[in-house]
Amino acid sequence: MAEVLGIDVSHHNGKIDWAKVAQSGKKFAIMKAQYEAQSHRIDETFEYNYAEAGKNGLARGVYVYIARASVADPVGDADALVNKLKGRPLEYGIWLDLEDKNIRGLGKQKLNDLIDIYVGIFRSAGYYVGIYCNKDWYNNVLDSKKLAKEYAFWVARYPKNDKGIYNPNSSLKPLDEGVVAWQYSSKGKVPGVSSANTDLNVDYDGIVNLI
Known about the structure:
By secondary structure, this protein is α/β, with parallel strands linked by helices.
């Protein structure tokens, strides 16, 4: 399947001109929907981003950041997001963002159990669910071989001299089991996005066309 390019955004990216983003060739956008479990406050730009990205033809996904407060109440955290979404479609699903240093030491089994809670709630609400992490977490923290049998992975890995350029032949490109998307830069420049840096992604397994 053909590779497609996308971005992930939050309030840090300011007000986005989604028509320009679409014209630049980006096909999907993964958005922050709510703050972490301490408050569950909705991201200031989510409603605007969701509506405008959809209006301009981008497949939409959201990510939920899993941290210490998430461990204390994963059901409440997941339910809060489902309630905010109100059954609205997510063409690119929900991604569990697993990178927080405070949960790194939980161990693979506890992390598996935590993932299962979120996935159960999100799937019951009708959403596709995947896992976002960096290459270190994929290799050393998560039970990736087991998880990859059931979940798609979106993996972050940047070059040392990150210039926001996608190289499809890069040796950094993660091709591990279950990996379907790569966050290849945190320093992208995207038409329509006024913030200095934007996270850039490539979907190289067609997930954007399958869900």
